[in-house]
Amino acid sequence: MVSGSPGSGKTFFVFRHVIAQHIEKGFSMFVYDFEYSDLTLLAYNAWLRNKANYSIEPAFYTINFDDLSRSHRCNPLNPESMLDITDAVESARTILMGLNREWIKRQGDFFVESSINFMTAVIWFLCRYRDGEFCSLPHVIELMQLDYDRFFTILRADSKIEVLINPFITAYQNEAMQQLEGQIGSTKIALARLASPQLYYVLSGNDFTVDINHPNAPKIVCMGNNPQKIQIYGAVLSLYFTRLVKLVNQPNKLRSSLIFDEFPTMYLKYGYAYSNCQVQQGRNNNRYSRSFYATSRRHLA
């Protein structure tokens, strides 16, 4: 972990060398570029200089929600990478915690867990429906907008998610609308922040997958944030990162490097231990509690 005040030279003296040397050594790479495109340009130029040195030439991809002409498309809920319902649970928790930072301290709360279960049910339904043809975050958001009669009729067609949706259906049948709106409304309100054409376009495509260190298809992936849109973009990028770590941390994969600028702007699920991970932290805006930083330092050491 590299910490320093703004302008102290973290990028110039440390991270440009880390990026260049890891690419020279044949690493696949993920770069979280908080102030796009500073680190992305460093990675891109290093890739141009060294791509011929790889046994299999890596592809270079970028995600940029502000300038679609400079962005590829990638679906973080790609059904091929979601092996069971726990993947849906993890994805739902990541995106909702990223959008509602205060929920991090309220895990276990009735309405928080209800929102996570509700979104999990929708994700898993779409993952199983027509082999996941419509399993993407934009489709999840839009499906939630249906009226309750149509919505619950559709979800009840899949017995695999019955245990998740049963409390909501029971509340609806008992006309406990205030409770139901409290459970579902908080989810819909949070996800409504992501309902933009730019996000929908990027999140619904399949130009690449986030298994950056696949032996037959190595990748260098750079994802950009925007300091003016930290909470919205940070939540989506956290979902990418959660899916990426699960796919990268497997046996018989290539060497990989995970590099982050302004790591506190992303949601980190407690308990992960990240290897080959360099973190550039310029400003601590108290986005998380002291326990978060203690946990982060322990796992990132």
UniProtKB/TrEMBL annotation:
Keyword Cell membrane belongs to the record: yes
Membrane topology: Multi-pass membrane protein
Organism: Dyadobacter fanqingshengii
Subcellular localization, as worded in the UniProt entry: Cell membrane
The keyword Iron belongs to this UniProt entry's keyword annotation: no
Protein name: Conjugal transfer protein TraG
One of the record's GO cellular component terms: plasma membrane
Keyword field: Cell membrane, Membrane, Transmembrane, Transmembrane helix
